Amino acid sequence: DAGVIQSPRHEVTEMGQEVTLRCKPISGHDYLFWYRQTMMRGLELLIYFNNNVPIDDSGMPEDRFSAKMPNASFSTLKIQPSEPRDSAVYFCASSSPGLTVYNEQFFGPGTRLTVL
Amino acid sequence: RKEVEQDPGPFNVPEGATVAFNCTYSNSASQSFFWYRQDCRKEPKLLMSVYSSGNEDGRFTAQLNRASQYISLLIRDSKLSDSATYLCVVNMVGPSGGSYIPTFGRGTSLIVHP
C-alpha cells in the first residue's frame, strides 16, 4: 500500500491567494483527519470525516478554511484567501474502521505551506 | 489549560541512558492513549498504544495512571536513533457517541548523544 498521499509537498503563495491541499487516504480506511502543525501551537486537529461525512469541524480556524471529501479516496482542504499566519505544515491522516477509538492513525508526509 | 500537556524538553541524554516522559490529560472521560514518534520534518508515526495494565515493547514501556490522569513512556538503553519528538495522544469519545476526538500533546524532544 502506498500509504496516505498528500499533494503538493510544498506550496509557496502570496497573501490573498487561494490554496488547495489534497489528500488520498489509505484504501479501506473510513476516517480521514486534517491537522495543522506549527512551532507555536503544535499539532492541531482541524476537521475529520467518517465515511466522507464531516463529523467535527470545531478546529477549523475561521471561514477562510473549508474541507471536502467528495468520495472515499479523496479530500481537499482549501484556504481562501490565504494569510501569512496560515503558514504551517498540514497533515492528512486516515484510520481503519472497527473499534475506532483504539485505532492507529496513519499520517501522510504533509504539505509545507508558506504564505508570503 | 491545554487538554494534553507535555514537557517540551529537550531531554539531552547519553547513549545507554534510561529516560522517562510524562503526559497529563484533563478530560477524565478519555478513552484511549497512544505515544507517537515524530522525526524532524517528517510525519508522526505510532510508537505504541498505552493499555491500562501497562505494556512493553522491547526497550519501551508505557504506563497509564487514570487516577492521576497521566501516561508515561520509559525508554531504556537509549540509542542515537531514538532522537526524535515524542507525542502523546488522548482520544475522547465525541458528543455524538459514535465518533472520537484525538488530541495531541505538543511533544517532548529527546536528543541522545554519543
Describe this structure in words.
The complex is a heterodimer of chains A (116) and B (114). Chain A has 116 residues and is an all-beta fold. Helices cover 0% and strands 53% of the residues of chain A. Chain A is built from no helices and 11 strands. Chain A has strands spanning 5-7, 10-13, 19-24, 31-38, 42-50, 53-56, 65-71, 74-79, 88-95, 106-107, 111-115. In chain A, the strands form 2 sheets. In chain A, strands 2, 4, 5, 6, 9, 10 and 11 form a 7-stranded mixed β-sheet that branches. In chain A, strands 1-3-8-7 form a 4-stranded antiparallel β-sheet, with no helix packed on it. In chain A, a hairpin with a 3-residue loop joins strand 4 (31-38) and strand 5. Chain A is globular, with a radius of gyration of 14 Å. By secondary structure, chain B is mostly beta strands. Chain B has strands spanning 4-6, 11-14, 19-25, 30-38, 45-50, 55-57, 60-65, 70-75, 84-93, 100-104, 108-113. In chain B, the strands form 2 sheets. In chain B, strands 2, 4, 5, 9, 10 and 11 form a 6-stranded mixed β-sheet that branches. In chain B, a hairpin with a 2-residue loop joins strand 6 and strand 7 (60-65). Chain B is globular and about 50 Å long. The chains are: A mainly beta (116), B mainly beta (114). The interface between A and B is medium-sized, with 20 and 23 residues.
